Structure prediction request, 852 residues.
Amino acid sequence: MKLEMLNIVKSFGANDVLKDVDFNLSGGEVVALLGENGAGKSTLMNILGGVVKEDSGRILIDGKEMRFVKPLDSLDAGIGFIHQDLNLIDDLAVYENMFINRELKSKYGFLDIETMCEKSAEIFQRMDVKIDPKTMVRELDASYKQIVEIARALMMEAQIIIMDEPTTSLTAPEIKRVFAMMETLKEQGVGMVFISHKLKEVLEICDRYCVLRDGDLVAEGDVKDVTVNDLAKHMVGHEVRTDMLQRDRKYGKEVLRGENLTLQHCFKNIDFAVQEGEVLGFTGLLGDGRSELFRTVFGCNKEYRGKIFLENNKVRVKDTKQALNLGIGYLPRNRKENGIIGDMNILENGTVVIWPRLVKNWLINRTLQREEFQSKVEDLRIKLEKDTDRIGSLSGGNQQKVVLAKWLSANPKVLILDNPTQGVDVGAKEDIYDIILDLADAGMAVIVLSSEAQEIIRVCDRALVMYHGEIKGQVSGDAMTEENIMLLATGGQTKEMGEIDHGSN
Amino acid sequence: MEVIKDRGIRYGRWFADQWVNNLLFSTGIILLVMLVLQTQALGFNYDSFGDWFTAWIRNLTNVLRNNSGIGIIALGMTFVIISGGIDLAVGSSLVAVGAAIMLLLDTGPSGILGLVGITGFPAYVVAIVLGAGVGLVLGEFTGLLITKGKIPPFIATLGTMQLFRSVTQHFMQGYNPAVPRGFLPLASFRIGNLMLMPIIYWIIIAVIMYIVATRTVFGRQVYAIGSNERTARLSGINVNRVKRRVYVLMGVLVSFSAIIQVARIGSMDYANAGAGYELDAIAAVIVGGTSFSGGKGSMIGTVLGVMIIAVMNNLLNLWGVPPFLREAFKGAIVIAAVLMQRKEKEI
Prediction:
């Protein structure tokens, strides 16, 4: 099967999203589609998936011209689109999800569960994975969910599979599992489009790459001829830095200290301390408990045991409002669910934590609110048209900066950043790193939580590595390498981690 | 010719755009159309323009006055729904507060304030304050069930709806308090031969609620919680406290409505007063464009929503539509309003 997209043009209003883009894919290859947020990747794939209609251009499959008006058309043509936020129903079994809306029925009109399970199992066998079709989807880990989605596409005889950032929410061993399955499919002649911000993974799994920038195809070629730096350069249009960014700083007095912190099923016996002007990293694999730990510090779980000290005073943090008043800031992970308020405008999103402080004569003073926010817009170089626009109209990077702005305006003593560059393009990522370092220079204590070792190495002075809710070790200076972090993060026993099998119970 | 046609298209497009994207615009237009229809239904068969005008005003003020109680409750309901909740107990709370005021003010031998020797104007003030206090306590109780008890608002208020009315009915049976005549002008005081007081209270409360919703920390926090509770909590908002206050506010507004009702009628039917108020208030809020899933809505919309339903009822009455069928129109307009909202969302 050979797919060609020729001269695709698409604009939304005055915004030219795709300007005459060509894209092609053959069976048995994995093509990386790269670009910053807003470069046009999603639009291109949405056109292929029948979600949006192109303004002009042609789509050919095996030389035959196709017209995709709705997602079903594209599916019928053998194109499966695995969206970033998976479309599985947690409370149904795997086979029910596989056959949703196309359930097989016996001759009396009842569901034919046996056959559906058999067919599901056949597909899984073809993909070389072990999943019991009767498992509830809720019990699967993220990688198996991804695999079930792909299996569903394959069952509909998809020859081309589009994967939109499939590895974002996966841990290292899970990513390995998905990649192994991709290799198997490749051998069977399935073509795949791999959309990702993780360039190392692109080098690992893809054969070719295409880079979009501002609606133009700016580079394409074989992956084996390029490095991560080359790709990043194509994406942003200029050199990017990958070096360590730590600067020599004088630390001030201790700001936050945790002693023996424990929360059942989440983390235990955690000791840490962070000083003024220090950037402390916390890393590990997904589910290592670091998010829960710092949410607890921020007052989300009052049942914790152990002690929290703020500037050497013992405090018992019971709710988030108290944490805020104590001078703790927490930028959460998963911006859409935890970081932004979709129905509110940019200005309100950027000031929500300081509303009480902006009150004059019982009312929120709008002038004060705008001044406060405007100064952050300049400091953080947030790109926006009107601050009364909806927060959703901004790019991911700028949304994240607005969330950051709301915390900076609260002027916390210690700022906890959980996955601060999640879903943010390369350029904004660099901006956020700069902001973190500037904050530390100005004397703020910063804690960065991230599962990307590279990120920790770039901005943190030292890092604590967690594994299954416990701190496994600390890395700093020259010892802060991806290898060392990985070793600690996997509990020092890499092999065992790779074989946790949730699929066959 | 071309120019005129172009301009026509441009206005048409502007109108379509406003209609879809600006809920106040569409609800406003609907209300205006209904008012025109109402004018037409009243007819022009009068001796003079003055007579016609008096009749027209009288009809409109009657409609608004009869709905000002619901109007005040709907303002509180708007907050409740924006916060992502619902309150089914407003009618029952109204009866409970009404009973409390009647007990306090009774001119008979067992009137509480009479027994302690407070009469006349001070008694009215005390009764109003204590009445509002009862509403506040009932609201706080509901709020605690929902926040501390973690009971979904629908279930919690379904429970309190029956609890409040049943307890009130039990303790008030066989007891017929009489409200002192001096209390009645609170609602029936005439301005230029028109009973405008309830409408004035409604307008004042609406203006205050509009300011609370758009300009105060509490108001904005209610929107934030309704839109994304998790983000709100992670932004240092004490979600439970804000939610509790929403129900307290609802309770206080219900008390105002009860006070006006007592002053207007001078008595209360504990079995039937306020029955169906919860649904009328919810209907008005929804017609006014507030999103049932929370986070979006406006006080102006709710005022327009109450007026649309009120004027529509009046219109059906004037047209002589059989009473049983009138409810169907109310149902239809609620459904139509939600259909319109869905259209807005897709864009």
Notes: Residues 493-505 of chain A have pLDDT under 50 and may be disordered.
